Structures are given as structure tokens and as C-alpha cells.
Amino acid sequence: MGSTTDFAALAALMGDPARAAMLDALMDGRALTATELARCAGVAPQTASSHLAKLNGAGLITASEQGRYRYYRISSPAVAGTIEQLWTLSDELAAARQGCKRVVVGPEPATTISLAPSQFRSRMVSPSAGTSSCRWRGRR
What we know:
By secondary structure, this protein is α+β, with helices and mostly antiparallel strands. It contains five helices and five strands, in the order ααβααββαββ. It has two domains: 4-75, Arc Repressor Mutant, subunit A (Orthogonal Bundle), CATH 1.10.10.10; 83-125, no CATH class. It has helices at residues 4-15, 17-26, 34-41, 45-57, 77-97, and strands at residues 32-33, 61-66, 69-74, 101-104, 122-125. Helix 2 packs across helix 3 (34-41) and helix 3 (34-41) crosses helix 4.
């Protein structure tokens, strides 16, 4: 079991906006180059390299070389699942502050859910409007 110091360091590592954008870009399963990830994060290539070294050093991503390029990807399903859960929690907390609730979207009338977020496609709805006027990023 890790210490609270390890937990705090990992949370800080993932909490940087540029690194979070890079992790988000890698969540579709594709391997991307440092240049592509720099563009996704809106940072200079040199800055991206520094961020990628930190993410790689922490074990959140892995790098593989193909020809003259180095490709980065999420290191494991456990890391991808953790990132997904953090995105979902972040979106739900932000929506709750706006007075929204999470509902299942499908052919049946929408119903409130309390099961694991990855099991359903969902959206946030405003209780007053009954529409998706609240911000929802449509994560997987």
C-alpha cells in the first residue's frame, strides 16, 4: 500500500493541465508522438518532452520507438480505468455544482442511475430544463 505522499505526488502529476490533456489524448488507445501530444496540450515540444518524461517515470505511460519516432501510450488498463474514473468524477462534481444530474441515455425514457459509470452512455441534464444544458464532455 502506498503512502499519502505517493498518492499526493501522483495526483499532482496527473493534475497538471498540460499532462491531463496529454493523458486525455491517449485515452482512445492510439499511440502518439511527442509532437502530437504537444499540440493536444497546447505546449511547446520541449515542454511536452519534460511532461512526458515525468508521466513515463511515474509509470502512467510507456514509450516505444519505431524508426525515428517515439510513440507514447497509456501503460495499462488499470491506468486507463483510473483516468476514466477521475474524468467521470470530475464531470459529475462539476455538474452537481451546476445543479445537474446524471441520467442514462437510450431508447427508453431517461432514468437516474447509481451504477458504475463505465457501464452506461450518459449525459448531464439540468433538472429545470430536462435537457443537456449542463456541461458534459461525453467521456466513454
